[in-house]
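COURSE: Structural Biology Practicum
ASSIGNMENT: Worksheet 4, Part C
STUDENT ID: 0417
INSTRUCTIONS: Below are two proteins. For each, the amino acid sequence is given first, followed by its structure token string. Answer the questions at the end about the second protein only.

PROTEIN I
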Amino acid sequence: MKTSASAASEGVRSARRSAACLCAGRARRSAACLCAVQFLAVLLCASPAPAAFDISWPDARLAGMLVRGADLFPPPDAGSSVTVSAGELYGVREAAGWGVHAAAKFRGVAVGVELATLGGELYQERSLGLEVGLDPDPDLRLVARARVLGLGARGVDDRWAAAVDASVTRRLIGRVFLGAGCENLTRSRIGGSPVAARARFGAALLLPSVTLRWTLSFEESFAASAALGFEAALTDWLRVRAGARDAPGKLGFGIGVGRPGVRPWPLIDLAWQWHPELGVSSFVSLTMQL
């Protein structure tokens, strides 16, 4: 028998899904008004379930492998870069977004800055993040990230919050890595509802031409979610990716064009995710290797 928290959580997610599906229909004024009311009621009113920022906007490379949240296993040879990403979730105009991520290394310290936004005229989620990565030894990486989050809707004042994330990655043997991460360690709330908080664990095999990764995510009031993804290099210039996830069930596919690690060549990535009820999401990214 479901607990009241689980029922409320499912209600929040169901209401968000209903609002998204409604917005995807015909662009009628009455539908737009009802959609706005649903968004406001679900996202700006107090709720025991995470109703804001439960979608982590990925770049197309990660989206093709169904990676959720920040990457626990960045490529070992990753250098300075700037990535611009855009996409649309389930063909819903109000769930379109874009992001910019810049990364660089200074005397062994990796620094990244990320700006992302999701939404349209009725509702928007915005985030600005700063992350710092340290390598105490060649087999260990520690990452801390601070985010400023903004949530707004038509006719309502913007709400703001701050959240802190952390992750650790350890080389187990050879090219096998283990990782763990926590999002929203501060248990921040926005608009009366908690910002999504997750714990993630994973393992990855990172070979020069093949990447295989498995992750397990836990979120309060929701079922655990497992994902398996891979990336394979068909040629020096072409890579293919695929992934599968349960809870919710999704399939992912992607392609990448370019030569990773060869500067100053750009990288172009495309990805698609399929949900059996909500349909297809699409992503595109352009990365400049510096």
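PROTEIN II
(use this one for the questions)
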Amino acid sequence: MKGAHAYRTWFSLFWLGGVCGSLNLTGGCAESPAERITFEVRARSEGPPSLTQGEATLTLTRAELTVSGIYLCASSTASIDLCAEARGEMLPAVVVDALNPGPIRIGEGEGFEGRRGGQGDRVMRSAQLSYGVQWLLTAARPALAPGAHASLHLEGRLETPTTSQALDWRLDIAPSAAGRSTGAVTFAPAVLSRETVLTLVLSPSAWFAQIDIASLAEGDEDDIPLEPDSSTYSALVQALTSSALPRFEFHSHPPTSAGHR
């Protein structure tokens, strides 16, 4: 990890540097430092880009999700209280095409080489991520991360037997005062290596599972508005931070040259 990043949230600052005083974390401050490595991060979409409820069909033509922090944790529930068990992260903001079946490369993470079994194993079991909005230690309120324009940008069309309306929505999903943007994403125990590929699996249609899409067509406007205080806005935020979190998949591929890609 490359020292202090100006855009780290309070969660990342505390979690990766607040207890040990350095980034040489290996599952406990008393252990010898593990080897620092980089690993590839990808993303892909799963499920259809459309959702039908009764006679209403919503088809997404654009679903861009900004990911500005992925934090990998040793515990089964990612938490700032488990700083000394951090395993890796990807910090820069990147816009992900959540409709692309991919997988597509979205960036590079940094972490520490893992190992399984025995005392002081270096295994990951959960993660948290942020969506383009940060809350710095020195800031009074959340703000967009450098390079981010919105947490989520959706475009599409809602069709019913009597209407056809477009939507063009932008949402900002801010972390709490504790620096958390999402609940914990859990997965089967995994370890990092130079051959690791982490893939985020996104399901845009699942973001609308708790929304009555037919009710969105009740107005007579050509475009469907989205207000920050609406139940639709709240349901989308709830989905991305709790009920429809990205799924994390870990795979390996051979290094291309002398252990490096």
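ANSWER KEY EXCERPT:
Q1: Residues 231-243 form the longest helix (13 residues).
Q2: The helical segments are 10-17, 231-243.
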